[in-house]
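When time allows, look over one protein, given below as sequence and tokens. The question is which stretches look regular and which look disordered:
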Amino acid sequence: MSNKPPITVSRLDAQRLEALLSRAPDSDVVDALEQELLRATLVPAAEMPDTVVTMNSRVKCREEVGGREYTLTLVYPDEAGPSKVSVLAPVGAALLGLSVGQSIDWPGPGGKPLRMKILELEYQPEAAGDREL
């Protein structure tokens, strides 16, 4: 991912993700997510800005080249399914910590870079008071 905007991650999400990554098989996405966590600004969940994509957030985003819009929920791997993207999928790892209005490049099918822009945060657990999700 060549374009790396600043990201913010809650300490709770970082702890849970570090535990997940310690058990995950090695992959490019695992390596990328580890690097994202290392460069992230960590904040207590209670201080998380309500415009930042956190775990279990539902986000409206647009793939900028094709213009297609998606509503996705960022989840842990065992919860992935239709419209629920795993944090261990390339787009999931790319979304974590982004703020509304930010864009990021992520590897699409065949390795072709795609650009995803965050349009709106429809739900964020921290903003809703659901910090234990």
